[in-house]
Design a protein that fits this description.
single chain; alpha/beta; Rossmann fold; 7 helices
């Protein structure tokens, strides 16, 4: 499903170049639940954004389903991402002036699909948010916001869900609920890749990858 070959990402800063990822080789088969772990500054988020097609590597190749996505134009890469990848942000990134159901349905047009309120509503009901669909994000708890973000990520029936610290702002009960929903997607055959610095997601993982200073601490499987 996902192959990274010699991926390097170097940021130019006022203090000089900083390597966030260094010659990274990694293969992730379809249907794996992968946890990427490491301390702050280890390159976890850079790696996730690279996998999502949002962060062009300085060098190297990323293949998703055999397609080199950074050889695509910005428009085609955005379309590919919208159709194949659901992204769950730590800070939710919900549109504050839209209702919960509209926040979820908004994902449709980005992938060339309809703005389907019924579909969005059904997803929210499955995630336990039936009574919140017409609320605005400011009226939700942190756990409810994250479940809304998961519903949005699922809207286009992606093959892959990428999640950046999806439990970082949640208490243990809500964190477990969010991971349970991601595990359900995984059991249906989806590929899940979670970035975290904690241990709570380990029990769900088929595989744990440790990063330090942009390099793998454990060899690729």
């Amino acid at each position: 499903m996902i192959v990274l070959e010699n991926i390097t990402k170097t940021y130019q800063t006022h203090r000089g170049p900083v390597d966030a990822l260094v010659d990274l080789d990694l293969s992730i088969p379809e249907g794996q639940f992968v946890v990427i772990r490491g301390p702050s500054g280890s390159g976890k988020t850079t790696l996730l954004l690279t996998l999502a097609g949002m962060q062009h590597p300085t060098s190297g190749k990323l293949l998703i389903a055999g397609k080199n996505i950074y050889n695509l134009s910005n428009r085609l890469r955005a379309n590919f991402r919208a159709q194949n990848i659901g992204f769950v942000f730590q800070m939710f990134h919900l549109v504050p002036y839209l209702s919960v159901v509209d926040n979820v349905a908004l994902a449709g047009p980005a992938a060339g699909n309809n703005h389907d309120i019924t579909k969005a509503r059904n997803l929210l009901e499955k995630l336990g948010l039936a009574e919140r669909i017409f609320h605005k994000p400011a009226q939700l708890s942190a756990g409810e916001k994250q479940r809304t973000a998961i519903a949005r990520a699922l809207y286009n029936n992606p093959k892959i869900i990428l999640a950046d610290e999806p439990t970082g702002n949640l208490d243990p009960e809500n964190a477990s609920a969010v991971l349970d929903h991601l595990a359900q997607f995984h059991r249906r055959g989806g590929t899940v890749i979670i970035v975290t610095h904690g241990l709570i997601a380990d029990q769900y993982a088929d595989r744990i990858i440790n990063l330090r200073q942009g390099r793998l601490e454990n060899p690729p499987a």
